[in-house]
Amino acid sequence: MEYFYTPPQLIAAHELTIDGDEFVHLSHVMRKQPGDAIRVVNGAGTAYDVTIAEISKRTARCEITATHARLNEPETDVTLGVAILKNASKFDFLVEKVTELGVNTIIPLLTQRTIPRHAKTDRWRKLALAAMKQSGRCVLPIVRDLTSFQGFVAQSSASSIKLIPHEKAVRPLAYLPLQTASTIIICIGPEGGFSDEEVAVAERAGFTPCSLGPRRLRTETAAIVSAGVVLVQDSGVRIQGSE
Predict the structure, then answer these.
(1) I need a surface site. Which of 81, 131, 153, 185 has the fewest CB within 10 A?
(2) In this structure, how many other beta carbons lie within 10 angstroms of the beta carbon of residue 175?
(3) In this predicted model, which residue has the larger pLDDT, 242 or 160?
């Protein structure tokens, strides 16, 4: 079933409206017609099975036939803070994949060794929206504005399990007791890695250093692996071939 997005303010008790870019995709790209059944997600945790009732010039009115709360969403709320990359397309890939895995918040970071100083936040939000629909999720990940490493660490919740994968750490991430965690914060460094000073700052703020193995991983790989270790079993992810 094809997935489409509409914000909560366009959803009523028994019907919803699709407009904007999603309407263009529905009517002009997918060529949907009245009577077709589709699934619509609100990005806030609810999915709707709907039947298209009417297509006008700029909107589609749909009748709701079923409602699904937290469809395909993990129980664990994961926030990923990750240093932005010199190669923008690699960060695009990162955003797409961690969204598929079930990350709820993505925070682009400026660290001591970060090379670029500007974030393509609007683009990453669009990629997260597309990845949410493609993967069958109903929560749209929040992509925050570019944040300093110090600000990220200082603002991290004291009640969360906080992890900082690092090449000097010994204890493997996969061996940490995370099964009962309701919120997890993961911090991933830039191409040159975190400085010793940054690791010390994170540890003082309650972050646990952990290892992703003996091989040196690129930033985007480390982010995807970390999210995967935490979320794949929780999410019940289905592996499928899709474009």
Answers:
(1) 131
(2) 10
(3) 160
CATH code for the domain of 52: 2.40.240.20
pLDDT digits 0-9 by tens, 157-207: 887 899 999 988 999 998 888 877 899 999 999 988 999 999 999 999 999
Helix (H, G, I), strand (E, B) or coil at 25: helix
Q: State whether 88 and 179 are in the same domain.
A: yes
DSSP 78-125: EEEEEE--SSHHHHHHHHHHHHHHT--EEEEEE-TT-------HHHHH
50 within 8 A of 16, measured Cβ to Cβ: yes
Domain that holds residue 13: 3-69
DSSP label at 154?
H
Q: Structure tokens of 46? A: 């609810």
The CATH number of whichever domain residue 176 belongs to comes to: 3.40.1280.10
Q: What helix, strand, coil percent values describe the chain, rounded to 5?
A: 30, 30, 40
Assigned token pair, 226? 């970390």
> Considering the domain boundaries, does residue 240 fall inside one?
no
Domain count, the chain: 2
- pTM to 2 decimals? 0.92
Same domain, residue pair 150 and 186: yes
